[in-house]
Amino acid sequence: MGLIDIELFASLDLVAQSPGGPDEDPEGFPLGGWQAPLLDEVAGAQIGAAYEGTDALLLGRRTYDIFAAYWPHQKGGVDNEIATLFNSVPKYVASRGTPDLSWAGSTHLGPDLVGAVREIRDRHEHVKVVGSLDLVQTLLREKLFDRIDLWVHPIVLGVGKKVFDGGAVPTNVTLLEPPAASPTGTVYLRYGLAEGTPRTGDMSAPDRGLGRDD
Fold first, then answer.
1. Which of 29, 60, 66, 78 has a CB 3.0–4.6 Å from the CB of 135, allowing a cystine?
2. Helix or strand or coil: residue 47?
3. pLDDT tens-digit series, residues 59-102
4. Which residues pair with 185 in a beta bridge?
5. In sequence order, what are the residues at sequence separation of 6 or more whose Cβ sits closer than 8 angstroms to the Cβ of residue 140?
6. Angle between the 133-141 and 113-123 helix axes, to the nearest 10 degrees?
C-alpha cells in the first residue's frame, strides 16, 4: 500500500486559499498570490524535495484546471523538472462535474471518492495531493492520508478557506522530522498520521505541580 501525501501552503492563521496567484480561487478572497513575496530558495528546495518519488497526483477540480493550463507548457523552462514529473505521472481528478481531461494521463474519479482513493493508494507508491482544499477536507475526515507537508508562512490573512475548515475529525499525528525555517520565516512541518485519537488531561493535576499555592 502506498502513501497519500497532502501538500499545503498556509498562513499563520492556517488560511490555504489561492497562495500562488490572484486567479487561483478568487471567490470571496482578495489576497490571492500571498505566497509569492515569501518564497525563497530554501523553501523552494524543500518543496522540490517533497515531490521526490511521486508517482501520481490526486487533485480537486479547481487545482487540476490550473495545473492543466500551466504545466504542459513548461517543458524546458526553469520549472522543467517539476513539469516533467507532473506531465508524466497519472493525474486523478475528484470532481462532481465533468471536467475537461485534456491533460495527458488524467482520469476522472467516480462518485465513490473514498473507494476510488483507496484503490489509487493500492496502485501507487507515493500519491501527492496539492492544494485541492475541498478534497483535502474529505481526506482529513476519512483519515485517508499518510502524511501532511505543511509550509506555515509568517503572515496573517484573516480571511479565506483554511486547512482544517470543517473536514477534520479528532486525529493524532506525529512529527516526522524537525521543523525547518527558511530565511523569510516560513516553517516547514512534516507530519504523519498516527494511531488513535487525542487524549485529554488536567494541567492542574497534583502530579504536574500546577495550580498550587506553594
1. 60
2. helix
3. 999 999 999 999 998 877 777 889 999 999 999 999 988 888 99
4. none
5. 164, 167, 168, 169, 171
6. 90
Give, as one character, the DSSP assignment of residue 162.
B
Integer Cα distance of 138 and 190 in angstroms: 20
Output the nine-digit C-alpha cell for 199.
487524549
**Predicted local confidence at residue 27, as pLDDT:** 85
pLDDT tens column, 146-165: 999 999 999 999 999 999 98
- List the grid coordinates of 114: 473514498
Question: What sign results for the dihedral spanned by CA atoms 77, 102, 51, 66?
Answer: positive
**Helical H segments across the chain, by residue range:** 41-50, 61-70, 80-88, 113-123, 133-141
Cα-Cα-Cα-Cα torsion 21, 24, 25, 27, nearest 10 degrees, comes to 70
| pTM (two decimals) | 0.89
What phi and psi, each to the nearest 5 degrees, are found at residue 120?
-65, -40
C-beta separation of 124 from 55 below 8 A:
yes
- Give the residue from 86, 74, 66 showing the smallest Cα distance to 21: 66
CA dist list (Å): 68 to 53, 71, 83: 21, 6, 11
Asked whether 109 and 119 are in contact (CB, 8 A), the reply is no
Query: How many residues make up the chain in this entry?
Result: 214
DSSP H/E element including 133: helix 133-141
